[in-house]
Amino acid sequence: MSQEKDKLIIELVNKGLDGDMDSVNACDDKIIRAKAKAMIMKVKKGTLERPSMPESSSDAPKEPAVDNATNSGKEDDSFQKMKDMLSNEFPGEIDEIHGDGILYLKPDKWLEIAKWLKSESSLFFDSLQCQMGIDVGNDMLESRYNLHSMEHDHYLEVRIKIPRSDAKIPSVETVWRIADWFERETYDMLGIEYEGHRDLRRILLPDDWEGWPLRKDYQEQETYHGIVVPKMKEGWE
Amino acid sequence: MGLLTNKFQQDNVIVEKLDKLLSWSRSTSPWFFQFGTACCAIEMMAAAASRHDMMRIGIIPRSSPRQADVMIVAGTVTMKMAIRVKKLYEQMADPKYVVAMGSCATSGGPYWQHGYHVLKGVDIVIPVDVYVPGCPPRPESLIEGLLKLQEQILEDRPLTRKMT
After folding, report:
1. Where do the structural domains in chain B lie, given as residue ranges?
2. Most C-beta atoms within 10 A of its C-beta, which of A88, B53, B60, B134?
3. What strands lie across the sheet with A140-148, from one edge to the other?
4. What is the pLDDT of residues A70-123, one digit of tens each?
5. Would the CB atoms of B79 and A231 count as touching at under 8 Å?
């Protein structure tokens, strides 16, 4: 793929140097256009020799459009591949599949799956970009993980649904160190217990606060250390 | 000293109530406790910096509650912070004054209705002398509030026995 792009760039550079800048500007792919223009500038300055014309040069301007189409197809393919690999490695762990790179997993084997996602060389999810919690209603809580691989530049969103009454999920704090504070915040706001977390305390609210504020059924406490919590200055509105 | 320059005859004798002299000297140097709880602190810093220059009216930031006379509560006071604010207030030496700066410190501000974690006005935990509204108030408003506080201090009679 990149060889074809190089060819295209060199072709455009040659055209541009011959005075045909219109065909350079007509190129749809921004990056190729920019590279070609930069190369033209360098050749004109004399810091770079003029590249020789590649052999096959028939349908040059059409190619970037084809590139784009295959690219978007490729993304879906990679998600499909991830999904297949995961279901082969951990059969029965995928709960539900959404498009757009979102997977619902069951909580039981999450830690093993996380370790595998990070260590498997063709996936290599080395960065946990975000972790958050949400109360989705119907007595269900959800913990979401946005994963990204620096090496392969692909993304995956993992969601784990659990009932409010038994809100326990294995902690991935030992896999991605950043999850430490993320999970503490989710625990603070929604009361999801991350099992295996080495320092699971509240992070924003005081340690002796009662209840989980972002749950939909949250009732604020009456007093905190003798201070009235709900608004009390009646008649001010 | 601007008030007194070239105001005397030969002997620099002044006849005045000691009460008044004390409150006058006190009012011209209300050092404030330098701490901020939220975004109002930025305006407080601006007020203390060179453009607005609170020092010209004798107001200097101090970093210890033991050396401060005025506590400017600049910003949102959360429940977690309320306990600390109260403790700091108790550490200040008498006489002490409190300025509640901004909507949050005066009434809870935007957290009035649904902010379960915010104190609905710092006057719930400590007595407040001057309220400065605004979100956040401009440095001019803060200085106006401090001038009002100076007027209040001038009216104090620290040596007179209080009628109860």
Report:
1. 32-154
2. B134
3. A94-98, A102-105, A155-163, A140-148, A127-137
4. 455 556 678 888 888 888 888 887 877 777 788 899 998 899 999 999 998 888
5. no
Say yes or no: A1 contacts chain B, CB-CB below 8 A.
no
What is the three-class DSSP state of A131? strand
- CA distance linking residue B62 with residue B67, whole number of Å: 6
Interface of A with B in 76-95 (CB under 8 A): none
Indicate the helix (H) or strand (E) that contains A89: helix A63-89
Q: Is the ipTM of this complex over 0.90?
A: no
What average pLDDT does this structure show over B89-95?
Answer: 91
Pick the CATH number of B32-154 from 3.30.1330.30, 3.40.50.2300, 3.30.565.10, 3.40.50.12280: 3.40.50.12280
Using the 8-state DSSP alphabet, how is residue A210 labeled?
A: -
Q: How confident is the model at residue B164 (pLDDT cuts 50, 70, 90)?
A: low
% pLDDT > 90, chain B: 51
Q: Beta-strand (E) ranges in chain A?
A: 94-98, 102-105, 127-137, 140-148, 155-163, 168-170, 193-195, 223-224, 227-228
Q: How far apart are CA B30 and CA B28, in angstroms?
A: 6
pTM: 0.70
Residues of A in contact with B80 (CB under 8 A): 205-206
Q: Please choose, from the candidates A71, A66, A63, A68, the residue with its C-alpha nearest in 3D space to the C-alpha of residue A23.
A: A63
pLDDT number for residue A70: 47
The 3-state DSSP composition of chain B as helix, strand, coil percent (nearest 5) reads 40, 10, 45
Cβ pair B117:A228 closer than 8 A = no
